[in-house]
Design a protein that fits this description.
Blueprint: H1 14-35, H2 38-45, H3 49-56, H4 59-70, H5 83-91, H6 96-115, H7 117-144, H8 158-173, H9 179-194
Helix pairs in contact: 1-2, 1-4, 1-6, 4-7, 5-9, 6-7, 8-9
Length: 196
């Protein structure tokens, strides 16, 4: 009796996935979240819409994963031996042009995140919660080393401080966030708040 071959779902290679994510980020910069459609992604990437839905479920998950993929390195993998070194190393992950692009992209997505529950959920699941978990590891190492008291109330707000500085730089100073600005912000605001 001859065996019947069962069709296998094709897997997207890491290179193809990176190409798709890059195209999504380019489209977000060009047209914004609301005007980005799975049709435009399919056309830009020469993919079928069915493949995109099968792999990512929908636009919100695809966008969140594309942004996550575009982030340089894992936060928890940075371990310089000191909290100051870790935070400065994290700021150094992106050069100034990349930071400016990220800032512009996040400004463009801010309203969409607030008005689209699917996108907000995808961001929480794909970006916010994983990164908060990674930051907690960085801070726990600092506590374990004795650099920060475990009961320091600022520990709960470090990510808020960093995101606030990143987002407010353009609004307040009419300049994009830069490494120099964020390094000085760490030393002037974040580390003193932590007593480190």
């Amino acid at each position: 009796m001859a065996e019947v071959a069962t069709p296998r779902r094709s897997r997207i290679t890491p290179e193809r996935e990176a190409e798709l994510y890059g195209a999504v980020l380019d489209l977000l910069r060009e047209v914004g979240y609301d005007s980005l459609t799975m049709d435009t992604v399919a056309a830009r990437t020469r993919s079928s819409k069915a493949t995109l839905y099968r792999q990512w479920g929908g636009k919100a998950e695809l966008v969140a994963k594309a942004i996550r993929h575009g982030k340089p390195g894992r936060i928890a993998d940075v371990d310089t031996g000191s909290l100051r070194g870790d935070l400065h190393a994290l700021v150094s992950h992106e050069d100034d042009p990349a930071m400016e692009q990220t800032s512009s992209l996040m400004r463009g997505l801010a309203m969409a995140i607030h008005h689209n529950p699917d996108l907000r959920r995808a961001f929480r699941e794909q970006l916010i919660e994983p990164e908060m978990t990674e930051f907690r590891r960085v801070f726990q190492r600092a506590v374990d080393r004795g650099e920060v008291r475990a009961d320091n109330p600022a520990l709960d707000y470090v990510v808020h401080m960093m995101l606030g500085a990143f987002a407010a730089r353009d609004l307040i100073d009419d300049e994009p966030p830069t490494q120099a600005f964020l390094h000085s912000y760490l030393d002037a605001v974040v580390l003193p708040a932590l007593g480190a």
